[in-house]
Structure formats: C-alpha cells, structure tokens
Amino acid sequence: MGSARYEGSCHCGRVAYEVEVDLDKTITCNCSYCQRRGSVLAFSPAQAFTLLKGEEALTEYRFNTQKIQHLFCESCGIESFARASLPDGTPMVAINARCLSGVEPAELQPTLYDGRSR
C-alpha cells in the first residue's frame, strides 16, 4: 500500500478529515483503552492531516500519562483519530484505519504494540 491520501470520518460523518498515511505500518495496541476500542492505528505527522469538519463536535478523553488527546464525535461516539506529540515534540496524529474510506481492515497487517507493559 505505502503512503497515500485517504478520507476518513466518524460513523455519522459529523467529523471528517483527509490524511496522508502509510498503511503498511499499522499497529494494534493491548493497553487497557486500545484493547477495548479495537482500533487499527496508523501514524501521520500533523501537517499531513486536515480536519475538514467537526472540530466543534469533538470530545476529548485523556488517561494514564495524559499525553494523548483521544478525540471522539459527541454524536456517534467514534474515535476516528487522536492527537499527540513524539518525544521530540513533533505533533502527530494517530488515525483509526477502520475509519478510512476504501480501506478493508482485514487486509492490513498490523504489528502488536505492547502498551499494557508501558
């Protein structure tokens, strides 16, 4: 697949975005939050992400280290992306690949990230 441009959204479409992301480098995480949510995550620099609509519809959730801004639609409850920074301060966006148009999650080959042990 490699890096490509995708459109994504929450379930109801109130939150929508475009992103350039590499779906060959997806992960699943076994931390208490990600395991329950079931996302397949891909990461993109913030400058490769454009929120098209829905900033006012986003509700934030933070836990543990409080560093990841988990954002979900207040209408349908779907977290289609999250915002955070790398340790060097570079702004990043974690994309829920399950929310990207034209992407079949069963075709992705995510690597397991052991968030439970961190």
UniProtKB/TrEMBL annotation:
Coiled-coil positions: none
PROSITE patterns: CENP_V_GFA
Signal sequence bounds: none
Keyword presence, Amino-acid biosynthesis: no
Alphabetized InterPro entries for the sequence: CENP-V-like (IPR052355), CENP-V/GFA (IPR006913), Mss4-like_sf (IPR011057)
Record-linked Pfam families: GFA (PF04828)
Metal-binding as UniProt keyword: yes
MF terms in GO: carbon-sulfur lyase activity; metal ion binding
Domain CENP-V/GFA: 6-114
Keywords: Metal-binding, Zinc
Family per record: Belongs to the Gfa family.
Annotated protein name in UniProt: CENP-V/GFA domain-containing protein
Species the sequence originates in: Bosea psychrotolerans
